[in-house]
Design goal:
2 copies of one chain form a homodimer. With 203 residues, chain A is of the alpha+beta class. The first copy, chain A, has 4 helices and 13 strands. Helix content of chain A is 16%, strand content 38%. At the A-B interface, α1, β1, β4, β5 and α3 of A face α1, β1, β4, β5 and α3 of B.
Chain lengths: 203, 203
């Protein structure tokens, strides 16, 4: 397969992916914003997330800023701004501000020296913990600890689950397809030799 | 937060996740099947996927089999079998076969000595490439190379994109919520100073 066709094909195989904007800032105060579909949950205790940095300078500005400040924010992408979020993947120069270029707004919280995306309904600050080189394809796995979460409390259910569908969070397939979701059901904690139970009262 | 509530909360933060069944086989021919929401695309060339193994023996049988055979299959979960897929997360003993216990069927392809899930519409065999320890929480990142893909050709578009929504692939949020999707649009490759274009003719 030609390179681009192969990229579409292989990117589709893992299934639906998360859509998040990574916001960073350099030591001079210049900000950067980039969409990632590789943010993945690594563990709840400590609360760890990972994301994959491509080689060939694909995410150079984001990576430089993360390494310099050891702090970044992750902002879930929702229906209202998914097109602006996708546009951050364009090859802007270091001096161009993606926030301004794509039409999204910065918001700062006290004590956190990197911006959040104002339009995002679920966002959090992450402290860099580790950078693991993946030698097989020169990518890097960025590992960080979640230190501050901002989310509308209506979306947080009694058992801790966050109803990200109610926040209109989108999901990605392949390189460029964006989707909203419709819940089938939540399912009870599975036990051997017991039928799978639908949780009907939690949402 | 109590441990379980915290797990629900933190698991929701990364956004929508993939839903995949990992099928493995030990050296005696005993098979294992387990649902994972942590399968993530690592790169197209070479075609690499990763998945995260929990500590505390959570995925012990799957991990043992992968390490012993260096081969496993990844099978996307779709609407028709998501409840059976969830049920594989129950703590079955090593001698219980999850395929049989949850009511899913094995299928073997010539030359590949691990089973596929017959009910899955998009599935592939993966050769183990690396196991990276994540020391911060005792998880392990399993990296593998995709060596053989089975997918209905109707779902594969001219540009290589696979329409996994047409295959009714589901997505997961938090620990236990399953969702179908509805496409908003595919978006053109983004370029600076050019409006984001909707690709209307590719699906």
């Amino acid at each position: 397969m030609p390179q681009r066709q192969r990229a579409h094909f292989i990117n589709s195989l893992s299934g639906f992916k998360s859509a998040n904007l990574i916001a960073t800032q350099d030591l001079c105060g210049n900000t950067n914003l980039a969409i990632f579909s590789s943010v993945v949950h690594f563990g709840a205790s400590p609360p760890l997330v990972g994301l994959i940095m491509r080689p060939n300078n694909g995410n150079r500005h984001t990576l430089d800023n993360i390494l310099n400040k050891s702090l970044f924010t992750i902002n879930q992408v929702s229906v209202g701004h998914y097109q602006q979020a996708h546009q951050t993947s364009a090859a802007y120069t270091k001096n161009e501000c993606e926030f301004k270029s794509v039409g999204l707004n910065k918001e700062y919280l006290e004590g956190i020296d990197v911006p959040f995306v104002k339009e995002s309904q679920l966002r959090y600050a992450v402290q860099l913990k580790d950078v693991l080189p993946i030698t097989h394809n020169n990518t890097q796995l960025i590992l960080g600890e979640i230190i501050h979460v901002c989310c509308n409390s209506n979306a947080i259910k009694a058992d801790g689950y966050i109803d990200i569908e109610s926040l209109e969070t989108v999901t990605v397939s392949g390189l460029d397809s964006y989707h909203i979701t419709q819940r089938l059901s939540r399912l009870a904690y599975a036990k051997p030799n017991q039928k799978c139970d639908v949780l009907s009262d939690v949402i």
